[in-house]
Amino acid sequence: MDLTVVDVPERSRYEISADGEVVGFSAYHLIDEGVYALPHVEVDPAFEGKGVASALMRESLDHIRGRGLKIVPICPFAQAYIKKNQGYADLVHEG
């Protein structure tokens, strides 16, 4: 399965495609200068348990880091992912 993550700013979300078909997304919105809220992550039920949501989080967080932004993880999945992958803890906005 070939997974691709892209930022779709006009929809305020990162989308993940499996073999060219969009199968999930991570929504975001700007809440302060340089700070994104991550309120929702969703993956097609047919792709749950296959690492798709984790790939989506990893790629989107890497992109956010590359842009020098911080995050407020509101979504329980995003919170759990960051707790499990402490290398992303520095992205969490302290404020």
TrEMBL record:
Keywords: Acyltransferase, Transferase. The keyword Lipoprotein does not apply. The keyword Transferase applies. InterPro entries: Acyl_CoA_acyltransferase, Gcn5-rel_NAT, GNAT_dom, GNAT_YJDJ. Its EC number is 2.3.1.-. GO terms for molecular function: acyltransferase activity. Residues 1-95, 6-93 form the N-acetyltransferase domain. Pfam families: Acetyltransf_CG. This is GNAT family N-acetyltransferase.
